[in-house]
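BUG-342 | component: ligand-complex export | severity: low

The export step for nicotinamide-adenine-dinucleotide jobs runs without errors, but we want the raw record kept on the ticket for reference. Input record follows.
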Amino acid sequence: MKHENKQSKTGAMGRRDFLKSGAMLGAALPLLAGTLSACASGGRGNAGKVLNAQVANVPSIKLNNGLEMPQFGIGTYSMSNEECKQACLEALRNGYRHVDCAYSYQNERGLGEAIKESGIPREELWITSKIPPTEYGEGKTLIAIDKMLKRLQVDYIDLLYEHWPIGDFVGAWKDMEKAFTAGKVRALGISNFDFIEEDFHAVIDSMKIKPVALQIECHPYAQRLEIRKKAKSHNIAVECWFPLGGAVSQGALFKDPVIKRISAAHQKTPAQIILRWHIQEGFSVIPGATNPNHIKENIGIFDFALSDSDMAAMRSLNKEKRFFTMPFEEVKKMILSRVLKD
Ligand code: NAD
């Protein structure tokens, strides 16, 4: 499959400027600690790698098709193109290498610009996006994937999800398989296939290419024990949306007394405790943030660990209380009636 990097030309800001504006600051930390002689001689080609490996230290998850996906990334829901671009650039400066996007967020162009301007080699990034139900159907989905590649300014997408099990998701999957074979997509996933049992099985049991990941709402108040068991039995990774409860939760998880107690004990913020819990549960986690302080804070979770008793306390918070409460029938109507711009 062709996954060659055709993205390495510098964009408007230029690789050197981007590195100067933040990444080099990050790379300087391990240098000062005397741990990274490679950085000094590495030059332009491997600066991204240096950041990822030495500053952010993000582990990866081995997917059922053998690919390694960074376990942690940034989510881009509810951001404009410009907000998405700035948030992604800030995240990339802070060592993030995984971005979760979707056509329905209408900000793939912003992500595309960030990828280009960062100058980070394409192969060092993990780019996820999602095809919405309005683009499902054999023949139709392949065209939608080509348009997505153009918006993102990339030759391939690392992980492509079906966003919802609505409409002709079987026909869409067949096109996604063709895109996989053509090297336009490296892995396929299902998102929100937790409403109806048969929909999950329609993909898992019948399709040629199996999903590598299931993306669902999951956080300490809705730990999704049943669906996680099912995903595990099929060797499918779980990736959590609303990992911090989402904006709609209005910070409910941050005020939880158990989370606050653990936060004080580790001198980490409640958000960091929640994200660390996700990591130790083995999830992939993609918190959304536009605030540069939050972007930095959220990735600062790889220098400490929750103890067994912390993990037990976090698990005890489960009440299977989702913050996204719209009934599925309403979700269907809402999604099918949305008109998306290219
Ligand atoms: P989230 O749980 O990541 O919370 C985001 C909210 O928390 C925002 O209001 C943000 O400002 C705030 N926040 C972030 N970091 C913070 C910090 N350190 N301290 C205080 N507040 C902080 O919710 P989300 O962004 O909606 O979900 C994560 C990602 O999952 C999305 O961005 C998107 O990429 C994806 N997603 C997917 C689906 C789906 O249907 N597959 C649905 C929703 C979201």
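Assignee comment: Attached the raw record above. Confidence is low (pLDDT under 50) at residues 1-55.
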